[in-house]
Every structure is written in C-alpha cells, then in structure tokens.
Predict the structure.
Amino acid sequence: MTDTAADVRHALDEAADPERVAVLRRFFKTGPGEYGEGDEFLGVTLPAVRRVVRRFRDLPLDEADALLDDPVHECRLAGVLVLVDRYPRERAEVVRRYLAAVRRGAVDSWDLVDASAEYILGPELREGDRSLVFELAASPSLWERRVAVLTTFDFVKHGDASTTLALAERLLDDREELIAKAVGWMLREVGKRVDRATLLGFLDAHAARMPRTMLSYATEHLDPAVRAGYRAMR
C-alpha cells in the first residue's frame, strides 16, 4: 500500500509532545507581526521528525507536496526533508518541486530553509549557472532571500566563496534580521572554511555598512581585538 501525507502526519502526531508547543511558538516567533505569525505546531523535535521521514523514504513526491502545503510546521519540515533525502535519486524533479514550494511560500521558516537549500539547490547549482541564486536574493520574500544565502553554504564547503561574497554585498542594506544573521553566518564560514584573509578583506571594505547583527555573526570567531576593531568601524 502506498504511503500518504496523512500517514506521515499520523506518525508525527504519535511523536508529538503537546507540552513543547508553547515553547516552539515562542522560539519561532508566531506572535502578531512576527515572522512566524500564526504558525501551528504539534510539538515534535527535529530528531523525531527525521526519524519519521526515514520511515517514509519512498513517499510519492505528490504526497511530499501535500506535506509542504500543510499548515502544521512539522509537516512542512517533513516535506522538505523528504525532498532532501530524494534529491540524489530524482534530482531534476526534486529541484522543480522544491523551487515551486519556495515560490508559493511553503518553505516559510528559517529551519525549513536551513535544512534544505544547501542540500538541494547547492549541489544543483555548484558547477553551473548560479543566476537563480541572485534571482532569489532579489525577491521581496524574506524566505526566498534566505534560500539564496543558504544555498551558497554548499559552495563554501567546496572552497568557493565568490557567490557568498557577491550576495553579501548585495544584501548589506537588507534590514530583516534573519537575512542579516544568515549573511553573517555565511561570511563567518568563508573565514573558517575558505580563507580568513578573504573574510577580512570583505570586512575591511564593508564593515562600516554592515548591520550590527550581520557584523556580529561574521566576526564572532575572530580574536577579540580584531572583532572590536571592526565593530568600531560602524
């Protein structure tokens, strides 16, 4: 018998801890006017969601789409994790469905983005045309912009900082805190994984314009005196 999105939802229900719901609502900023306003939770931990997804590795991709359109956060998380798991086996179809989900607003929280972008779009774009990254980075959608930034984590892990730096420069004036955090995080990874001098060169040129959060994330692994010097440039 073919598994369905309803079967996954049932498994998530069984793994849920209702006492976690209030904590998750606060953690994911679900209050009025916050980025996660109105999001719904079952109270399932990320490791438990991953365990459920492993049980449904052959879930039809139409059913993964149904999970991605579910109002419950953990269902959407399960949906993106199904796509990540299937990417090596069905690359083109997974990329198509993932981009469709991103563009219709189904990948709508930082944890959904961070668990998926680098693992689907990263390897897909690493060796070819990366114009999609810049298209997403220019979107009015916070989540599309974060997908763009997190996609470059794959490139950084393979020693290429060029796209990360180009996006960081374009997003210097982005006032969404979740973008500032993502860009600062990726810049930090450039310094740690690719070349410290490359990071320092970027900071020399741009620290004075960088939002405080972005600069803090980008410099947090540097020596205290170096970090203080860049913060004093603001």
About this structure: Residues 17 and 98 are 29 Å apart (CA to CA).
